[in-house]
Each structure stands twice: as C-alpha cells, then as structure tokens.
Amino acid sequence: MEFDPVLLARVQFAFTIAFHIIFPSFTIGLSAYIATLGVMWLRTGEVRYHRLMRFWTKIFAVSFAMGVVSGIVLSYQFGTNWSRFSLVAGNVVGPLIGYEVLTAFFLEATFLGVLLFGFNRVPPGVYVLSAAIVAIGTATSAFWILSANSWMQTPAGHEMRDGIAYPADWLTIVFNPSFPYRFAHMLNAAYLTTGFVVLAVGARYLIQGKHIQDARTMMRMGLWLMAILAPLQLFIGDQHGLNTLQHQPIKIAAIEAHWDGSKPGALVLFAWPDEKAEKNLYEIAIPHGASLILRHDPNGLFPGLTSVPPQDRPPVPNVFFGFRIMVGIGFYMIAAALFGCFLWWRGTLFETRWYLRIVSWTWWSGFVAVIAGWVVTESGRQPWLVQGILRTADAISPVPAASLLGTLALFVVCYGIVFSMGIYYINRIINKGPEGRVIEQPEGLPSRPLTAAEGAAREAMGKGG
Amino acid sequence: MEWYLPVIWAGLIGTAVAMYVILDGFDLGIGILFPFARNETQRDQMMRSIAPFWDGNETWLVLGGGGLWVAFPMAYAIIMPALYLPVIVMLLALVFRGVAFEFRTVSDSKVWWNFAFTFGSLLAAFSQGVILGGLIQGIKVENGQFAGGHLDWATPFALLCGAALVCGYALLGATFLIMKTEGEVAERARGQAKILLLGVLAFMAVVSLYTPYAFERIATRWFSLPNFYYLWPVPLVTALVSYLLWRWLGTERDSLPFVATIVLFLLGYLGLVISSYPYLVPPSLTVWDTAAAPASQIFMLIGTVFLLPIILGYVVFVYWLFRGKVREGEAYH
Fold this sequence. Notes:
The complex is a heterodimer of chains A (465) and B (333).
Chain A lengths: L4 H40 L2 H35 L1 H27 L1 H7 L6 H30 L4 E4 L2 E4 L2 H5 L4 H30 L3 H36 L1 H8 L10 E8 L4 E8 L2 H7 L20 H31 L6 H9 L3 H17 L2 E3 L3 E2 H4 L5 H32 L16 H12 L5
Antiparallel strand pairs in A: 1-2, 3-4, 5-6
Helix pairs in contact in A: 1-2, 1-5, 1-7, 1-13, 1-15, 2-3, 2-8, 2-15, 2-16, 3-5, 4-5, 5-7, 7-8, 7-12, 7-13, 8-9, 8-11, 9-11, 9-13, 11-13, 15-16
Chain B lengths: L3 H30 L6 H11 L3 H18 L1 H10 L1 H21 L5 H27 L4 E2 L2 E2 L9 H25 L3 H31 L1 H8 L3 H5 L1 H18 L5 H21 L2 E3 L3 E2 L7 H28 L12
Antiparallel strand pairs in B: 1-2, 3-4
C-alpha cells in the first residue's frame, strides 16, 4: 500500500499538536483561576480560598508537566516534518516561536518554582504575586504562539525575496490582521475551558456529597465566569468570522458549506458536503441565514467554494463539521451558564441534581470545542500552509512515508501511555479533594513542574513522603 | 550582511548545546548506570541525587532546537529531515524516560519503570551520539535542501559516536554520583568511572584518528601549518586532564572527578568545533550560509541577551540550594 507522505506528515503533526493544545488551553485558564483565588484569599482572609488555591495548583502541576513534555517535541517537529516551511517562513515565524520558548523557559525557571513549592518560604503577598505572574506568563506564551499562527493565516509585514520571507516590520508581523481576533478568541476559550472544569468538579462533589463548602465556592465562581465569558465568546467568534471573511473568504465558504457565490448564503444547520458534486446532501438550512450573519443583509453575497478551482479549496467536511461541533458546544456552554445562574437566583442551584449531573459529565466540553476550533482554522487554511505564500504540499520535509508512518505509531503509543497516566493522576487528585494533604517538599525548593507533578502524583497514590 | 551576528548566534547555540550535554548528560548517565545498582534503596538514592535538576537540564534542549531554527533556519531545515529517525527516537525516549521518573516512585511495581528509565536514558544518549556523528560525517545538500537518503546517517561511524556518547554520559553520571552520594553507591561509581574513563579515552582516540583519516577537511584543519602550532595543546591538555581524573578517582576526592569529566567533555566538544567550524552543516554550509535574516537575528538577540543571564542565574541558584550529599535510605524528599 502506498502512503502519501504529505498526509502522514499532517496526521502526525495534527496528532502531536492536538495533544499538546489540550494542556495549555487548560493551564492558561487554571493559572488565572489560581491567581484569582489567591487574590480572594488575601482580600478576605478566608481559608477556603487558600485551600482551593493549593488544590488546583496540584492539578496545574501535572497538566503543566504534560504540556512541557509535549511541547519539547513540537519545537523539533517544525524541522522534522516541515523543513521547507522552516526555511521559507523561518525568518519571520522563528523569532515569534523563539520568544515563546524564552517566555516559557523564564517562567518555568522562576515564578513557577515559587508557586509550586514556595508556599511556606515566601510571604503570602509574594506567593500570590507569583501566581499572577505565572498567569500573565502563560497568556504571554499564547500571545506569541497565536501571533505566529495568525501570521500563517494572514501574513503581513514581510517581503518575499527568492521565495523566502524576510521581516520588514516586526510590529506589523506580530500584530498581523487576524491576530487580535484569534488571540482574544483562544484566550477566552482557555478561560472558558477551565471555568467549565471548575464548575464540573464542583458539581461532582455536590452529587457525591463531599467537600460541600468548597464545591459551592467553585460552582459560584465558575458560573460567574461562564455567564460573562460564554456569551462574550459568541461575540468574539462572530468578529473573528467577519475578519476571516475579509482575509480568507474560502475558509468561510467551507464553514458555511456555501458553494455558489452568486446566491445569498443559507445558514446550513446540517448537511453532508459532497466535494465531488459541489453541493450539499441532506441539507437542513435557514435560507439567507449566513448572508444575514456575515453581511448583515439577507441578500448579501459572499464568495462560494466554486469561485476557486478544487485544488485551492480546503477539505470541506473537516471545516464544516469542526465548526458545528465548536459552535454547538459554545451554545451548550451559554445555556449551561445562564440556566445555572437562573437556578442560583432561584436558590436551588445546589439541589438541582439533574443539572449538576449534566454539568459534571460534560467537563470535557471546552477541550473538544478548542480542538474542533483548531481543526476549523487549520483545515480551513488548506491547501496553504502560509496563506498565499507556501502550499502545505510544498512545505514538507524530504522524509519517506515509511519513516513518518513508523514514528507516527510510536507517537501514538507513547502519548497514549503518558496521557492515560496524566488523566489517571489528575482524577486521583480530584477524588482526594481539596481537603487532602498539600504537596510538601521538606528538602527545600525543587523548582520544576515535572518535579511537582511527581509530588502531586505520589500524594494522589497515597504515598506521601 | 553583518558577519558577526551569525558568529554570536553560533556561540549562543553552542553554549546551550554544551550546557545541555553536560547537564542532561549526567542525569542520562545515571539512568544508564541504573541497572548496576544492587537494590531499590540504592536506585532511590541515585534518583534522588538528580531529582531537583533533571527537567531543568532538559529545557536546554528546547533552547538549542528552538535557537537553531530562529538563528539558522536553513541548517534546521536540513539537519532535522536528514536525521529524522534519530531525532524523533531521541525525543520519544526523553518523554518516556521523563514519565518513568515521575511514576516509578508512585507505582506498585518498580520493575517496569526501572526498565523504562534505563532504556529511555540509553536510547536518548545513543540517539544524540548518532545525531552528532551524522552531523560530523556530513550531510548531502543540493540547492540548500537535504538531498540524501533517509538512512544516510546510519554509518558505523555514527553508531560508534552513539556508543561513545553512552559511555561518556555514563562517566558523567558516575562522577556525579561520586560527588553527590555516599556509601556503596559512591564506591561502586568510583570503580565504574575508571572503566568508563578508559572506554571514553578509547572512543576519543578512535574518533580523533578516524575523522582526519576519513574527512580531508578535518585533516587539513588540524595538521596544516600554521594551524598545528596552535592546536597541538588540545590533545595534550586532554591527556593531562585524563591523567588527573584517573588519579583523583583513586584518591578520596569527591568533586574533582566530576569537574575533570566536564573539562574532558568540553575539550572533546572544542575538538569537534575546531574540526567543523565554520561549517554548521558539514561539509558545505557555514554559519553564514544558513543564517536567518539579520533583522530576525537581532530581534531575537534582544530578548535572549536580557533573559539568558536570569536563566543562568537561576540554574546556579538551584544547584547551590541542593548542594551536599544524598545518603542511602534517606526518605524520598
């Protein structure tokens, strides 16, 4: 059987990067939540905030460790899988990634150490400040990564010489046209993802009748956040979509499964986009709906997929279904947040068991929405790797399919083991609850997240030492 | 193009790689020596001696890889596909070994994690040696792209370099144990270090004799005049340091063997740099050929100059904090 090296390189990269994104999208939000708890603790002096802060820090340590481990691989994979990309875009994207590495390295080396192990060694104010700096640092990491990614979607501030991109204006490169929208959208997604996990863990404790005080605090804080951020995400997403229509209209056409640009677009709720026949099968749609959303005019026109030849179109089903999964979860989150607030106002939030059950079962919502959203934006950019500059098929490394296939299998096995262990330990920590022991490192100050993860894991297994 | 920018970056990346080789070298080495410990208590002791350091050590690898892409995108775009399999195997071995580190202490059955730790360390060290060998022996490049076969790296020489680095890391690990532990572990490490030192010297000799013989550019670099006048102290100092190391292994010196091993590594590294400079992708591309645009190198340099001293300072601080010896049977943390 013949395998296509481009497809294998893409599958491998998609696998490692989708695995990686799970952890940052959680730790960015979680560090902000930890910092918030710290501030609440300092302001009110209430022990429960402090207890929750320590509890979530343990989970943060394990997640951050897995993010670091899977991130090391990525810093080499740009070269192993996409060597032409590394060369063509290296002058521009390289430094953006480089700054992310420096930020992460710097953070890990300093303030994270204080957050993970410094509790008994620094004054409370310094401790909470470190938590806040870690939160700012993780967001800064996201800033650089999203700037690099956005530049690949909407390149700007560069000039091409002999097929290589050279930086002309760093400010324009960093703040390229889609960056502000993508950054806001992703950052908010990270906070939402974490907010929902916090909410779900609170609901789980209430159902189990454990840690009632802490569970209520978590649910209240989670709901507050979700009630503001979930509707806000709808607005940011809409703005992001309008920006995409301006710069990557074919991506929008794929999102809407809109083939014929000479007619107004319908809002397709469900369909099977048939790429060969260039039409939708089994379509359920609201006529003029997409035109209304995108052009604010029921008869407004926007480009359809057939306006470009088939080889210039993205894989429509990936984009189409990815988008519907993301938006579907988004609406579910809005509904869960608003209904939760309604129950809270009625005073029955902590007793409505069916609501608590549903929320605790769907802790994964944010993660799935984040991955689906990335599928939309990355698949939607195809066949380009850097929009208009470099095609994915031209960006690949000269590596044979057999090597790619073999290493893909290795990645799946290794990551499968790492991931299951990670989930297992996080679950153990959650089961033990906030009133469990906190990580203690009597020896001094081991500095790193992986070391902290070890402490947290040992504790989760009930072998404190 | 400003000629000095690529040189500065080559120096920075060279420093990051040297930091990585020495720092992660000793903890990979301890992984390699792991099976020779007599019981779990001793293995605990060995792990404890590197517990606070190892993941910080590994971060230098990210700086090296990321730095290479930022500063020399063409070299990065050639080296990574050329050495695809060893690079990926090294990364996965490091992941696996890292996980083993974490979970050995909490698992009920230590046997599997012991195996994963040793095997991962061994494989990572071996792959790094192969990568080094693959680089020294040269990469086929046409039109600024890798143009060789996917198993070009798999030569006897590269495999020899793999074995050499396993031996070298084990020596670093053994001398680190002499410095940082007490009792039977330290005593055994002393014996191991002697054998490993002989192995390392044998490997160094083979590499030093074979590379000028096989690669004319390396022979010209070392043996043409006036180069030879400047370069002869390198092997001489290496011999001297090796002799001192051997002596110190026999006496009750605890820290000096580790220091001497580091110096030995740096000398070997210096030798390889002398052999290859200014080529980043031997035998065809220099640091200037492969450099990123000056604007990119400057942009990145600003951040690096600011942050690198902080990071280095922190490294020193952590090692200072965990000074002193680890005893056998001491409670884990």
